Amino acid sequence: MSETVKIGEAVDVVDLAAKLLEDPALLKILEIVANRKEIKPLIHLEKGIEYPELRIFPEWSEKIEKLMSLELVERKIVDRVVECPNCNSIHVSTRFKCPSCNSINIIRTDIIQHITCGYVDTEVRFKRLFEKGKETLICPNCRIKLSEINVDYRILGETFECLNCGRRVDRPKIEFICRNCNTLFDILTANYKPVFMFKITEKGVKLISSGELVRALIFVVLRKAGYETEANVEFKGISGVDHRFDTVIVKNGIPVISIDYEHSSGEKTGITDFLAHIAKYMDFPNIQHIYASNKISENAVRMASRQGINLVHGKSMEEILSEVLNTVKNIMSKKSKKP
Fold first, then answer.
1. CA dihedral angle for residue 313, residue 316, residue 320, residue 322, rounded to 10 degrees
2. Do 14 and 220 meet the contact criterion of CB atoms below 8 Å apart?
3. Is the CB of residue 147 less than 8 Å from the CB of residue 138?
4. Is residue 179 part of a domain?
């Protein structure tokens, strides 16, 4: 049997359920995040940052913020991108510039020493000879070919060299250009935007896996539909034994419909779990019983049919809520037609 949230937390869960039902998209997004475990971004220079699972929801970012405020979803930084301060596009290119003359004609080059004559200069200053498709360096001081590294020459380090003014620097000036609006900006004016992934919180996992969230949602949905409902209540059966029900619909002070929900995280709800509820239902022959679950086995379906129990299941929380409400409406409609 799934873990049950403490009864003292029930009021908070009902209030949470009511807030989720204020916007139908909240429940859908919550379930997507819960089922996917993680919602990761796709970063496109031209399209920007996308979340494929969420883009079908208008203003999805506001919905995510709401779910975070309810402590059901959390976010984690997985990347950062440079964003244009003018148009907020991330279609941005980086330019290296000479800090002396501001030219973009600057390259990174090795500092080379010719071992034989001791001449030291940047690689760009060494002449090149192309023979049989192979490039060979030639020392500009003694004009000897440099064929093999660490034999004819060694690399002492690296530097940036401006091909316009000849200035050599350890680090060039860094500039960005927005390919969307052509704005030029530097690292001090750039927006260094965080990119997030979203996941369900521990609180969210507990509420969903225990079934407590769906139980609270069922209670709120029925109450909004105008039914007099009581949650997490106990009644004494004809055997004299007390039994607890997740939700009960009361008419004229008498319980007429009970609704129980069991969440299955793995295999479908089987006979063992269902038998415990059947024994309880048999102790209340004058009440119509609804057993709901996210997963139901075929054996449980057959047994429910034989025992006259209303079985409800759905692939999503939204589907389960809809099926429970429709089943309640059908039961109440039949009761109203009886003399």
1. -130
2. yes
3. no
4. no
**Alpha-carbon span 277 to 289, nearest angstrom:** 10
Q: Residues 286-304: what's their mean pLDDT?
A: 83
In sequence order, the 6+-apart residues with CB closer than 8 A to the CB of 86 are 178, 181, 183, 185
Q: Are residues 325 and 238 in the same domain?
A: yes
pLDDT digits (tens, 9 = 90+) for 100-116: 999 999 999 999 999 99
Look at the chain and report how many structural domains it folds into: 3
Spatial distance between the Cα atoms of 281 and 257, rounded to a whole number of angstroms: 11
Continuous segment of H or E residues that includes residue 193: strand 191-200
CATH number at residue 226: 3.40.1350.10
End-to-end CA distance of the chain: 40
Q: What is the pLDDT of residue 17?
A: 95
Three-state secondary-structure class, residue 175? strand
State the residue range of the domain holding 33. Answer: 23-85+192-201
260 and 118 fall within a common domain: no
Token digits of residue 298: 């075929």
Q: In the predicted model, what is the mean pLDDT of residues 329-334?
A: 88
Any idea how long the chain is? 339
Q: pLDDT per residue over 35-79, tens digit each?
A: 998 999 999 999 999 999 999 998 999 999 999 999 999 999 999
How far, in Å, CA of 230 to CA of 203, rounded? 24
Q: Which two tokens stand for residue 7?
A: 């009864």
Q: What is residue 217's three-state secondary structure? A: helix
Which residues 6+ apart lie within 8 Å of 120 measured at CB?
A: 111, 112, 113, 114, 156
Are 132 and 33 part of one and the same domain? no
